[in-house]
Predict the structure.
Amino acid sequence: MTRADLTVAVGLSGGVDSSVAAWVLKQEGYNVIGLMMKIYDPSIGTLPALKDACFGPSENKDMETASRLCEFLGIPFHCIDLTKEYRSIVLEYFRQQYLSGRTPNPCVVCNRRIKFDFLIKKARAAGISFDYFATGHYARVKKLRDRFVLMRSMDPKKDQSYFLYGLSQQQLSRILFPLGEFSKEKVRELARSIGLPTAERPESQDFLSGGDYSLLFRAQEIKPGDIVDIHGNVLGRHKGIIFYTVGQRKGLGISHPDPLYVTRIDPQSNRIIVGAKKDLESRKVLLSNLNYISISSLTAPMEVTAKIRYRHREAPATLYPQGKNKALLVFHSPQRAVTPGQSAVFYSGDYVVGGGIIEQAIHQ
């Protein structure tokens, strides 16, 4: 079977990366169709119409841009309504995590449950036929012996494998990442040389348009409370635990001779606990909701490098199995601001071993 016999659906966002991904696939000889998911629900409240967010009222303009792109490339364009799924899965997850004193990563959930799952299923249910699904993510996937493996992008500055660690073997088996060998600069250069309508489109930086996610919460869910030190002494008041995250220093409103940082959030007592910079450091991290990619399971300690958030400089660590769907990540040196709710992703060279959700930092 040749590429001309295969159809690839490309998940479009109206941005330059997915646009170039669609162009590259067409140049490689595939039959290409464009898919875009509709996720914005205006009933949550009024968000500013900014263009640098995944979720916001600029979605209609993004759809128009994606439609023009498909017309430019001479490929079909389809919009799939995932408003209900996005609200019930991603937004509700985001809400519940913050109300539990955690700091979630909605992109990880969206990729696993929405973009690489419901979008594909609902498109096929609508009668849209395709063999592979592709996106503009900077990552690579290939078959290695009996497993499909996820690899870093060739451009380390833009690598997005961190956000994709939750994908299953079944999902990876039908995914293409056309930009895995490209740098961001090369993608921009290509878009300009081709004359793509998205060539100068700025990158999406925020999850929510405007960055104010308090609109996702009911007024009665946002309760002021005490800010205390690690000994329980009250130092001030907070405006609601949803506005704070571990490691935060700014916006505490506390007058103190030494810099103070959020070290823990206690939803049961509705308290923010603050401490010195040294109180943020830990070597041991308990993880849950594990997903392994390069291995089928963890049966013995494994040396890895790990990231505890997307922009974190990965560090050497040992990964220990801890029973069903749990693991203990022990860094060789202390790491700062390990944050419950965030994802820890582990690597072996360029290969993603897997990842999981941070349950707690173990301070000793």
Notes: Residues 280-362 form a domain with the Elongation Factor Tu (Ef-tu); domain 3 fold (CATH 2.40.30.10).
